[in-house]
Every structure is written in structure tokens, then in C-alpha cells.
């Protein structure tokens, strides 16, 4: 008799959301139920114009948009009106999270600076990032610490923004006190540029996707536990280290980029995202088997195999959608197939 499947494979996304301890995991699982989507599009395009156009087209069909900001020519780093802020506005409008596929891998102090500062200031606009923990598990704790400090700063700035400029009294002393508080905040903190706060883009309406609140300000990490490329060096020892690091940092780690479900302990409720997903041309049957690779190491599998057999939660699709003649229509085709695979998994 085969061993019983883990509860994360037999429970609906909605039921798993109720037991999620990470606020962003809870939100994502509820969003998946609402949109009936477990699709992530990998937006590997080369210009900011292409990126924003693609996000607007496929947004209704996806729950996650995966980016590589360093691929993009013309990325505008302005924290209030630049490319990251524009993506955040589209994410609110269409209901998806932004996942910057940065693959952080370095000592703790370095990854902290890469995450929260620099030209891109990734933490300000990306809900989710990922990490290769070859540099050691302590880097995960370092990134969690950086995210917590960022969150504390954002909380402070949001609280302050409610009172700044409001005199505490009608006399001159009260007004002066208000002015001093503005000076202090401006000198002590950089501007807050989170996806929730950057809402002044003229050509993107300030719309929140109906049926669900805005995404929480918490940030999440995916651990790169397994890869879809042939010849990769992520062996069982490395994958087990990722599992340990995830369990030790549940307040920050949402799950994994992996080829199969790694949930094994009763309390495991980690999300799994899997690249290398491809459908046969429309009209051909999907048989659940693997497909031919791209000749450069990438190996492909269908949604039926990745979700129904391997137990992943979200499939990541890149060229299969972005190189299609109709990316919007192809994204919807992938969404329907991936969701059907999830429903079949629940029935079985």
C-alpha cells in the first residue's frame, strides 16, 4: 500500500490559506482560489515597454509575474514613477504578485544590501524574491532581518503620514512642533516606495482587484531548492538544507522553487513554484509526459505532470507564452489547463 499523500496535496488552496502562517502565503493562496489560477508568467523580455505591456496583457490570467530586472533595457529606477512602481500598479489592478528572480547568493551583509538598497531597491516593489543558499543557511536569516527592518520602517512612515502636517493645537508652538516632526522624518528615513504606497501613476488607474484586499506589505522568500535544467548541481544534500532553512524561517520563507513537493512534515504548508512548464500546440493532446527541451539545458513538463504528479502549486511559463502570437490568449490557455490539473489532483 502506498503512503498517504501529504495534506498540502489533498487540500484546496483556500483550506491551506486558512492554515498559512505567512501573511503573503495566505494572501496568495486566497488569490489563487479567487482567480482560479495557479499560473506564473516569467517575463523574460528586454525592454521596459515590453515588460509593462506584457504584464498588462497577461495580468488577468496570472497570480504571479516573475521578473529579471537586470535583463530590462530602459528600466526606470525612479522609486515613485519608475518601472517598479508601474509594475506594482498593474499588480494591484489585475491581482498578481511580483516575483523578482534575483537568486541571491552571498554572505549575509552583502545580500542585505543587494535586497534593500542599490539602484533597483528590489524590496520596495517585489513582493517575493528567491535565493540560492549555497553560501550557507545564515544568509536566509540575514535577508529575513533586512525585510523585518524594512517593514518596521514602512509601518513608521505610514503612521507618521497620518499625522504629519496636522497641527496639534492652534497656537504657534503646535504648528512648529508639526514642522519639526516633518524635518525629522525626512532626515531619518528614505521615501517609502512599496507597491502599496506608490499610487500616483497617471495612466494606470488606482484600482484594486475586486474580491480581495491589497497584498500585505510583508515580503516573502522562495528557496531555490531544485532546478529544471539538465546537469544542475543541486543534489539531495543541498535540497535538504533548503528544507531545514525554510522550517527555521517560516515568518519569511514562503516556499520553494522546486521540481516536486517538498512538504513532508505535518505542519509543512510551503508553496512550490516550478519552471519548465510547456503545453503542446493547441489541438494536440496533453498526455502528462515530459516534452522535448530547448537544446540549452531547459527540460519541459506539462501542467498535468507538474501539478498532478509532482505536486507543485504554481507553474512558471516563459517562452511558451511570451513568444506566442497572442500572449494574452495563450496565458489564458495555460491558466485553464493548470487549474484543471489542480482540480484533478484534488479529486484523486
UniProtKB/TrEMBL annotation:
Cellular component GO terms held in the UniProt record: cytosol
EC main group: lyase
BP GO terms, sorted: 'de novo' pyrimidine nucleobase biosynthetic process; 'de novo' UMP biosynthetic process
Keywords linked to the UniProt accession: Decarboxylase, Lyase, Pyrimidine biosynthesis
Database matches in InterPro entries: Aldolase_TIM (IPR013785), OMPdecase (IPR014732), OMPdecase_AS (IPR018089), OMPdeCOase_dom (IPR001754), RibuloseP-bd_barrel (IPR011060)
SUPFAM superfamilies xref list: Ribulose-phoshate binding barrel (SSF51366)
Active site: 101, 103, 106
Enzyme Commission identifier(s): 4.1.1.23
Binding site for substrate: 44, 66, 228, 298, 318-319
Location of the Orotidine 5'-phosphate decarboxylase domain: 38-334
Pathway entry: Pyrimidine metabolism; UMP biosynthesis via de novo pathway; UMP from orotate: step 2/2
Family from the record: Belongs to the OMP decarboxylase family.
Protein name: Orotidine 5'-phosphate decarboxylase
Top-level taxonomy: Eukaryota, Fungi, Dikarya, Ascomycota, Pezizomycotina
